[in-house]
């Protein structure tokens, strides 16, 4: 108890993290009470808010969850757990509907159906998006507003979780740092929704505050971690002298953009292969002394600003005109595939401890 100013008994679980995973969990728990602990102001500072391209779901007339699962398993190169893949792809259309019911403004075609983009390793257009290339911000807005409206959800902002509290082999709470000092939260369960580890890398598209805190807390509490070496590198981060690097959504390549070096040679014939394949092809070029560029001049060309307004603004802020200039890109740490080992319910190997979202290895 050294350094603990006070104890608070929470009537329900404590959810550490207020991105899409943490807020969705809190909303789904309603009307059961819970406490959400956010490191910053809710609705800001999370990887969720930076996501661009959209969410994959088999909602098109030419698509199915089975085909979505097959694409995922093929891209997984033998590392996927097939029952989990099939379970997730089957649930994806309902997740889109659930978010829409919360008020998420998915982009729609003139006939009212949801617009669908194309991204790497997908054989169908199944990327549902919002505000063109600002999907994450829209989903975070919708879930944050919904969470604030529910009386069952208590929210502590600008609070940093430091350690998990265990007793007799079970997680029973968490120590958190607040403006008033360190408080010990005692609860029925802790749900980690703390995001990934991108901030540990030289080049990342994540907030620099994402450096594996949740995974470290889980490990210290005795939880099993899995596949911690598996880090997804996004092939197209804008190669600028800033940190973190601005992301250029894979959906841009889905609209016809290609990858070339400074000689105008294609980096690879198909820029919509799986991200690990494209990132390795780029890295090979960079290691050989070449520069790599995303060429959007022909496709999507003049439509770029309309389809991808957020990316267009970032490029212009860096002095680049996507319609006339090549966009310098580099692979950057984007998503941690490993994490806290959990089952389908999010339960870790330690009773009382759950993990969801990027911090989890499902």
- Mean pLDDT equals 97
Count of DSSP strands: 19
Question: Which CATH first-tier class of the largest domain would you pick?
Answer: Alpha Beta
Annotated CATH architecture of the largest domain: 3-Layer(bba) Sandwich
By DSSP (H or I, 4+ residues per run), the number of helices equals 9
Question: What's this, in brief?
Answer:
The chain is α/β, with parallel strands linked by helices and 362 residues long. The chain contains nine helices and 19 strands.
If you had to describe this structure to a student in words, what would you say it looks like?
There is one protein chain. The protein starts with a strand and ends with a strand. Helix 1 (20-29) runs parallel beside helix 4 (135-149) and helix 2 packs across helix 3 (82-102). The protein has three domains: 4-47 and 142-229 and 337-361, FAD/NAD(P)-binding domain (3-Layer(bba) Sandwich); 55-128, no CATH class; 233-333, Alpha-Beta Complex (Flavocytochrome C3, Chain A, domain 1). It has helices at residues 20-29, 65-75, 82-102, 135-149, 213-220, 251-254, 275-287, 304-307, 309-317; strands at residues 4-9, 14-16, 34-37, 55-56, 116-117, 127-128, 153-156, 160-167, 170-178, 181-186, 190-192, 225-226, 231-238, 258-261, 292-295, 327-336, 339-341, 353-355, 360-361. Strand 2 (14-16), helix 1 (20-29) and strand 3 (34-37) form a beta-alpha-beta unit. The chain is built from nine helices and 19 strands. It is an alpha/beta fold and 362 residues long. The chain is globular. Strands 7-3-2-11-18 form a five-stranded parallel beta sheet, sandwiched between helices. 26% of the residues lie in helices and 23% in strands.
């Amino acid at each position: 108890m050294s350094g603990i100013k006070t104890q608070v008994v929470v009537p329900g679980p404590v959810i550490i993290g207020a991105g899409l995973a943490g807020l969705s969990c809190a909303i789904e728990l309603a009307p059961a009470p819970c406490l959400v602990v956010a490191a910053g102001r809710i609705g800001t500072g999370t990887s969720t808010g930076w996501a661009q391209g959209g969410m994959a779901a088999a909602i098109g007339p030419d698509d199915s969850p089975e085909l979505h699962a097959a694409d995922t398993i093929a891209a997984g190169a033998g590392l996927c757990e097939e029952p989990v893949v099939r379970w997730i792809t089957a649930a994806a259309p309902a997740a889109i509907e659930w978010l829409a019911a919360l008020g998420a403004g998915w982009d729609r075609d003139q006939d009212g159906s949801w617009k669908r983009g194309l991204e790497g390793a997908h054989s169908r257009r199944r990327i549902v998006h919002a505000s063109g290339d600002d999907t994450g911000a829209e989903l975070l807005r919708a879930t944050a507003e919904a969470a604030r409206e529910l009386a069952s959800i208590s929210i502590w902002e600008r609070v940093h979780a430091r350690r998990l509290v265990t007793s007799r082999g079970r997680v029973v709470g968490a120590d958190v740092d607040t403006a008033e000092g360190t408080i010990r939260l005692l609860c029925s369960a802790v749900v980690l929704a703390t995001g990934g580890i991108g901030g540990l890398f030289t080049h990342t598209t994540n907030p620099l505050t994402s450096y594996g805190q949740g995974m470290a807390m889980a490990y210290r509490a005795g939880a099993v971690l899995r596949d911690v070496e598996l880090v997804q590198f996004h092939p197209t981060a804008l190669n600028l002298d800033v940190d973190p690097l601005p992301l250029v959504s894979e959906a841009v390549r889905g609209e016809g953009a290609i990858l070339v070096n400074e000689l105008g040679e294609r980096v690879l014939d198909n820029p919509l292969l799986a991200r690990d394949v494209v990132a390795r092809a780029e890295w090979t070029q960079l290691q050989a002394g070449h520069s790599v560029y995303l060429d959007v001049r022909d496709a999507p060309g003049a439509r770029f600003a309309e389809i991808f307004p957020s990316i267009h603004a970032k490029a212009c802020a860096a002095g680049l005109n996507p319609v006339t200039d090549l966009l310098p890109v580099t692979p950057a740490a984007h998503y941690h595939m490993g994490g806290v080992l959990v089952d389908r319910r999010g339960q870790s190997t330690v009773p009382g401890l759950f993990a969801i979202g990027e911090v989890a290895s499902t």
